[in-house]
Amino acid sequence: MIFGRVKPLDAILETAAKKSLHRSLGAFQLTMLGIGAVIGTGIFVLTAEAAQKAGPGMMVSFIIAGVVCAFAALCYAEMASMVPVSGSAYTYSYAVMGELIAWLVGWALILEYAVAAGAVSVGWSGYVVGLIQHSFGIHIPDSLVLGPFDGGLINLPAMAIASLVTWLLVIGTKESATVNAVLVAIKVTALTLFIVLAVPVMNTPQFSPFAPTGFVGISMAAASIFFAYVGFDAVSTAAEETKNPQRNMPIGLIGSLAICTIFYMLVAAGVIGAPGLSTQPVVDAAGAVLEPGSRELAQQCAARAAEGFKDVVCSKEALAFTLREIGWPQIGNLLGLAAGLALPSVILMMMFGQTRIFFVMSRDGLLPRAFSKIHPTFHTPHVITIITGVFVVLFSAFFPVGQLANISNSGTLFAFAAVSIAVMVLRRTDPGRHRPFRTPLVNITAPISILGCVYLFVSLDHKSIILFVIWAVIGLGVYFGYSRSRSHVGRGVIETHEDDAGIPPPPVPPVN
């Protein structure tokens, strides 16, 4: 039965109640938490990707992605407040819709975390390589800093940063909340400075044609830009620490997403309107828009650069590139430095999130027991950290940032749709359950969230959708071939462990 083997919600909540937290967060604190968690990586690394898909129309894409996130966040908040435990959407699904759905959600979250860590590693590489070339005049061959799809051979800087983060996670890192706050401040300051310098010199003609690829292109860009909003669930999971959550959670969630959307649109406007630059999609000889991250686009970009064209879509560091071209080369270098300093912490948290999901699934018997093995000296789940690190290194070495972001988004969208369905199911099957936060107008909000996630999912490129389907099929094979017969719940062994015993604490709060 597809909805069989449900993990007992009462047992989960009973142990979760033992670690109830002080309710101290108001609407303002939640909003600030959301802004700090969301603003960052995506806008740094995906602006060029969005421009190639939608041109100036990417400004609409930011609005679409933000609205879908808002509805998904309201559903996520109800589950997070009811089941404030480790495992995220995987645990919520296990408690409501059963083991098979939970397994698929956990399997999809592998795409969200591990592949996203690869995407940020590639984005970091683009900014750091640009910083080195423009600050020190050292030219690094494309073959060593770009993957084969981008016209190179291997992305060595991306591999290096992913390897370093893996090593840090194995030995254990105690990066403080203060350091994390400083890194968030660096990112926000850098982007604010970009807006202050770029927006006042915008040229209105640069915005025409506004939607060269039509609404299809805007939708495709929205599906990619969704990556820029990942992190909003940090607000949802703070429900148990929130004063008057029914009032303050929607304000914090929607407020932070609205501010981030406006922030992103201002950054996009500064890029689009930059005099002398072009954010129109690059096309081939027949006039067809080239696929972002493709060898064909790399070749066409090289040819256009030789002719003197300055295309934002061809840059691996779009924001720093824009500042340099509008007369602020040193500020552009500083922005590259800011990205170089701040993005590794994002890679760290994404890889940590991946190992945490693996850890919980292993402890439930769905993955080999070795996955939850703790190092005797470092007290970290070293086996699964190393396995995760190897895959992140390989992803970052050979794939372009946009493709990795899209694949990551496919897993995230599946997980958020599953949580939205779980909210509706639990409202019907257990209406009397205590809910510190209740999704407003759930019969409208949840379906919009589900449809929004489906809409963005089908707007992804075909390769990402096909890869997700293949990944899901592999996951089903692993489940029926290995996990189902070893599941603790299936064998009648109820081990909730939802007090997080044995799980190493996160280095810092999630931050994008």
Helix and strand arrangement:
Layout: H1 9-16, H2 27-38, H3 41-45, H4 47-54, H5 58-82, H6 88-96, H7 99-136, H8 142-145, H9 156-171, H10 177-198, H11 214-225, H12 233-236, H13 245-272, H14 295-306, H15 318-325, H16 329-363, H17 382-398, H18 401-429, H19 442-459, H20 462-486
Helix pairs in contact: 2-13, 4-11, 5-11, 5-13, 5-18, 5-19, 6-7, 6-18, 7-9, 7-16, 7-17, 7-18, 7-20, 9-16, 9-17, 10-13, 10-16, 11-19, 15-16, 16-17, 18-19, 18-20
**Fraction of helical residues:** 55-70%
CATH topology: Amino acid/polyamine transporter I
Q: Domain count, please report it.
A: 1
What is the beta-strand fraction? Answer: under 5%
Q: What is the CATH homologous superfamily assignment?
A: Amino acid/polyamine transporter I
CATH class type: Mainly Alpha
Q: In oligomeric terms, what are we looking at?
A: single chain
Residue-averaged pLDDT: 85
CATH architecture: Up-down Bundle
Question: Could you list the spans in which at least 5 consecutive residues all have pLDDT below 50?
Answer: 507-511
Number of strands: 0
Cα-based radius of gyration, to the nearest Å: 22 Å
Structural class: mainly alpha
